[in-house]
Amino acid sequence: MELIIYLLIGAIAGFSAGLFGVGGGLIIVPILYVVFTYLNYDPSAVMHMALGTSLATIIVTSISSLLAHQKNGAVIWSVVRNLAPGLVLGSFFGAGIADLLPGQWLQCLLGVFAIWVGWRMFKGSKAVVDPSKKLPAKSIQILAGGGIGIASAIFGIGGGSLTVPFLNKCGIVMQKAVGTSAACGLPIAIAGALGFMWFGQQATQNLPNTIGYIQIYAFFGISVMSFFTAKQGAKVAHLLSPAMLKKCFAGLLTVVGIYFLTKGINSFY
To answer: Which chain regions cross the lipid bilayer (predicted)?
Structure first.
């Protein structure tokens, strides 16, 4: 029964990611949080498990996305190479930071982040790319990658919401920024998942079917289904208004953000 639930989550997450054109992390984390809570997992580990499992599933989806963007020549590999060391270290140690934070702090942080992303989408903000802008020195790119990696691990995402704006500000056009961001999602997801496995070993040793903070059945179920349903979501997206889709998803993210923010704040009292 539990595996069926995870397959359903994967179907929803994949379809939604394809429909709204975003990574599934901000969809997977809230659903997993609710499911893990319903299944009576240790409350102190539920939020961490949702984040770690989400990152693990992004490994699979980011490979699919990367291949699609590479086929269209939209990946700037020199930028990926410069960002990668920071992304890997940041994401791994970001998992360590998440391990140190109580669940209610993670809920508040994710709530604020979801509201911010929702606000950006609702505004329909399209970055105005200044072609005169250039990428900073390699050392600065590594530092930027570190910041993106840390935040991505704490939020359980592939980093697109952060990498794309950074690349836009550096004068990279949207198509290549999205493609390059998709490639950056793979090292973020791998390093972050390994971090949640490593740092979660002690905390989850009494929980069934887990390696660290990663729930094995959830990882397989979500990965398999999301891989197939993302394509269906993308097909449906072409039949609907992009502006309306963005506003609907912005509304969904705002509700999710308020839910986590309220839950996190209430747990302090």
So the answer is: 7-33, 45-67, 79-98, 104-122, 142-166, 178-199, 211-230, 236-261
Q: Helix H segments across the chain?
A: 2-20, 25-38, 43-71, 77-100, 103-123, 138-155, 160-169, 174-199, 216-237, 242-266
Confidence band (pLDDT; 50, 70, 90) for 89?
A: very high
Q: Is 211 exposed, middle or buried (CB count within 10 Å of its CB: 0-12, 13-18, 19+)?
A: middle
Write down the mean pLDDT value for the chain.
Answer: 87
3-state secondary structure 22-80: CCCHHHHHHHHHHHHHHCCCCHHHHHHHHHHHHHHHHHHHHHHHHHHHHHCCCCCHHHH
Structural domains counted in the chain: 1
Measured in whole angstroms, the distance separating CA 82 from the mean position of its chain's CA atoms is 21
Domain that holds residue 235: 2-266
- Report the predicted TM-score, pTM, of the whole model to 2 decimal places: 0.89
Task: Identify the pLDDT of residue 159.
Answer: 85
Dist CA 181 CA 154 (whole Å): 18
DSSP 266: H
